[in-house]
């Protein structure tokens, strides 16, 4: 280590006054390898060691503090002192060994006193804003001193009463005496009693004076400390308000800047470079060239379409794909179009984080302030927002055109996430959710939470319009400091009744950015491979991650649909938050090499045709958690649903109504009830000397899939029949 500045000044410490626990003086503190040791002013008081750059800084700026009650004191050599506490370490150096020994002695004494005070503290809960450990130690020490003084006063009072009574007896005896000799002895005794009385009275007066001086001194000190804390709090509030105003002005300026707004994704915040200097080494960047597609698309004009009459577009080849059935023209049931506005509750992050100290984060009950009033089962059901794509695909004669629509459906499920940064409620074990749209759209959907650790949900949808969809999704997440990666595990199966085409695909990774600081925004990245296991047709979709340096449109999705032989037939392009288009490939050829030396394929296509377009959000969506039209109806009350349906969950219902405090209380009650049920189930199993096999779902059972080879939960039937009979006697009481 460098010893720069060692001889720049004296490190003489101010000797403490008798009976004082304050020690001050200059020491050298190690800063870094560039600056080495730097001269700092250290103050030891009330079990705390604080340091400042200069003595003048003591009035306004403290550079650091260590609580000696939990600190470890060590000496490296003749002049060095090492203090470590809670992951923080100070390397200090005195000018001489004598000075080092004075500091070590003072530190050890202060540490012992701080430990005694900490051990003597009561375990009573504090006020709304509890004092720090050192403040409580100081208060407790002062109170003990005051109590000691009160005990002295009480003892003096007892002595005064005792000696006063003896004096009265002596005086009474003096009056009845006639013998001069005895009178002299009694007079001597009276004088002795009077002397004792005078001494005791003086001691009492001195004790009272000490008590009053001590009370007055500490009263002034507490007033100064209180006034300082009030001023600091006011200053902090003003600083935060000023920062909030600066943030709003920067955000407005950013939105009004035409160059930036054209290259930055909606809903994301592009941080300024000067604000992220300390985070540059952790920031993830994606090279724009790496995300460029492995092919080049050249769109032919309409003239070329007349030259290739056999290569018509998706809508031209199979008009039956666009035919509407009579059921779609039937009048629909009127459902709600709004929910109560989201309350503007402020969230005290520290009140949550302080409960996480020393505990597993997975077991910390998070308040509903981070949630939206929908469960994960309902979010899973939102995949059906664009179910009409599957209705259209069921009527397609061409499996390749059908694949295009299935691919568009797989992308459409992400369109509702672009502004949805709040997390859904974690379903309770055995919780279900049904969405019965048989009369309106011809399908019925059922979800059930089949596992709690790890959380897993099974989903089954059957449509009268020619398709069945099922999936089991387990959510895995990784917190990486600045962002949270959410990885859905499990395959999605889709089968069309008439053709028997069976499609399988998996979801991509969702990333929530700016977890700690900044405005939350969501990105989707990764690849999806959709396989038709009957015809072996494939579709490769690529979700490009957002990059500051890419010139591509944000949230871009590209894909190629190929037959079993690997020949490409359609190009898919668009964004996962807006639309997907398909273009028929007319001709393909090998082009030049890209920046990485890889040869790219050039596809000549017809003009693209729209496959899917996102519905606009309802009016006032920004105050309704950015819910889509379907999401607004998911928690609407329905008659005859199962007793475990998410619509009946009380904490979720209270949150939707804006009663968040009650929702938090109810959420904790439900979670504790679920834990108690699990403990009871495990205890009964152990008592029977049987192996604990876990929870058995009510409507789903595990089966091995012949295509993927995986064992997952599939619908075993019975739910809709029970709903028809209104027989829910088999349902557990989870709410």
Describe the fold and architecture:
Pfam families: Oxysterol_BP (PF01237), PH (PF00169). One of its GO terms (biological process) is lipid transport. It is a peripheral membrane protein. It is found in: Membrane. InterPro entries: OSBP_sf (IPR037239), Oxysterol-bd (IPR000648), Oxysterol-bd_CS (IPR018494), PH-like_dom_sf (IPR011993), PH_domain (IPR001849). It is elongated, with a radius of gyration of 39 Å. It is built from 15 helices and 28 strands. The longest helix is centred in the N-terminal third of the chain and has 77 residues. The strands form four sheets. Strands 1, 2, 3, 4, 5, 6, 7 and 8 form an eight-stranded antiparallel β-sheet that branches. The protein has a six-stranded antiparallel barrel with strand order 15-16-19-20-18-17. Strands 10-11 form a two-stranded parallel sheet. Helix 2 runs antiparallel to helix 3. It has 735 residues and is an alpha+beta fold. The chain folds into three domains: 98 residues, Pleckstrin-homology domain (PH domain)/Phosphotyrosine-binding domain (PTB) (PH-domain like); 94 residues; 430 residues, Beta Barrel (Porin).
């Amino acid at each position: 280590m460098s010893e720069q500045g060692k001889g720049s000044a004296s490190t003489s410490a101010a000797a403490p006054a008798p009976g004082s626990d304050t020690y001050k003086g200059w020491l050298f503190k190690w800063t870094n390898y560039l600056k080495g040791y730097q001269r700092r002013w250290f103050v030891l008081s009330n079990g705390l060691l604080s340091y400042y750059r200069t003595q003048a800084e003591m009035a306004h700026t403290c550079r650091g503090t260590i609580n000696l009650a939990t600190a470890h004191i060590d000496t490296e050599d003749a002049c060095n002192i090492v203090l470590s506490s809670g992951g923080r370490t100070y390397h200090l150096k005195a000018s001489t060994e004598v000075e080092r020994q004075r500091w070590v002695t003072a530190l050890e004494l202060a540490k012992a006193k701080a430990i005694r005070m900490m051990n003597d503290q009561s375990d009573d809960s504090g006020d709304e804003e509890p004092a720090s450990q050192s403040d409580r130690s100081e208060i407790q020490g002062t109170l003990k001193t005051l109590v000691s003084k009160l005990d002295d006063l009480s003892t003096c009072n007892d002595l005064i009463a005792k000696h006063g009574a003896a004096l009265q007896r002596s005086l009474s005896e003096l009056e009845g005496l006639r013998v001069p000799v005895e009178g002299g002895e009694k007079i001597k005794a009276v004088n002795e009693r009077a002397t004792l009385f005078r001494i005791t009275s003086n001691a009492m007066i001195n004790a009272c004076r000490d008590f009053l001086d001590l009370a007055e001194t500490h009263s002034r000190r507490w007033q100064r400390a209180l006034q300082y804390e009030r001023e600091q709090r006011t200053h902090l509030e003003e600083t935060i308000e000023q920062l909030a105003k600066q943030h709003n002005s920067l955000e407005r300026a950013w939105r009004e800047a035409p160059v930036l707004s054209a290259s930055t994704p909606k809903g994301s915040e592009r941080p300024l470079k000067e604000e992220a200097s300390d985070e540059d080494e952790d920031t993830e960047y994606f090279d724009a060239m790496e995300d460029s597609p492995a092919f080049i698309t050249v769109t032919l004009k309409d003239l070329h379409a007349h030259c290739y009459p056999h290569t018509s577009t998706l809508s031209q080849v199979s008009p039956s794909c666009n035919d509407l059935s009579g059921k779609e023209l039937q009048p629909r049931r009127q459902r709600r179009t709004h929910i109560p506005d989201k309350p503007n509750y402020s969230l005290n992050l520290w009140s949550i984080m302080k409960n996480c100290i020393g505990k597993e984060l997975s077991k910390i009950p998070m308040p509903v302030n981070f949630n939206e009033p929908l469960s994960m089962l309902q979010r899973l059901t939102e995949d059906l927002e664009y179910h009409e794509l599957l209705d259209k695909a069921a009527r397609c004669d061409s499996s390749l055109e059908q694949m295009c629509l299935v691919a568009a459906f797989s992308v459409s499920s992400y369109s509702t996430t672009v502004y949805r940064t709040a997390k859904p409620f974690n379903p309770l074990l055995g919780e279900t959710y049904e969405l019965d749209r048989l009369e309106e759209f011809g399908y019925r959907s059922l979800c059930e939470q089949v596992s709690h650790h790890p959380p897993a949900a099974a989903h089954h949808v059957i449509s009268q319009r020619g398709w069945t969809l099922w999936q089991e999704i387990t959510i895995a997440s990784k917190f990486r400091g600045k962002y949270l990666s959410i990885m859905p595990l499990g395959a999605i199966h889709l089968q069309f009744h008439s053709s028997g085409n069976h499609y399988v695909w998996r979801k991509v990774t969702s990333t929530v950015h700016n977890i700690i600081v900044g405005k939350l925004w969501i990105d989707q990245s990764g690849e999806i491979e959709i396989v038709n296991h009957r015809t072996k047709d494939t579709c490769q979709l690529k979700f490009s991650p957002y990059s500051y340096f890419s010139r591509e449109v944000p949230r871009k999705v590209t894909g190629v649909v190929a037959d079993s032989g690997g020949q490409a037939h359609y190009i898919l392009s668009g964004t996962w938050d807006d639309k997907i288009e398909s273009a028929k490939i007319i001709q393909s050829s090998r082009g030049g090499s890209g920046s990485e030396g890889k040869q790219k394929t050039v596809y000549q296509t017809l003009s693209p045709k729209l496959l899917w377009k996102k519905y606009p959000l309802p009016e006032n969506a920004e105050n309704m958690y950015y819910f889509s039209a379907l999401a607004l109806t998911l928690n609407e009350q329905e008659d005859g649903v199962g007793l475990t349906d998410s619509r009946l969950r009380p904490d979720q219902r209270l949150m939707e109504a804006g009663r968040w405090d009650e929702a938090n209380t109810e959420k904790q009650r439900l979670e504790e009830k679920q834990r108690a049920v699990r403990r009871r189930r495990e205890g009964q199993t152990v008592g029977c000397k049987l192996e604990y096999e876990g929870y058995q779902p009510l409507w789903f059972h595990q089966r091995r899939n012949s295509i993927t080879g995986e064992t997952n939960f599939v619908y075993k039937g019975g739910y809709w029949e029970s709903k028809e009979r209104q027989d829910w006697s088999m349902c557990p009481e989870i709410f």
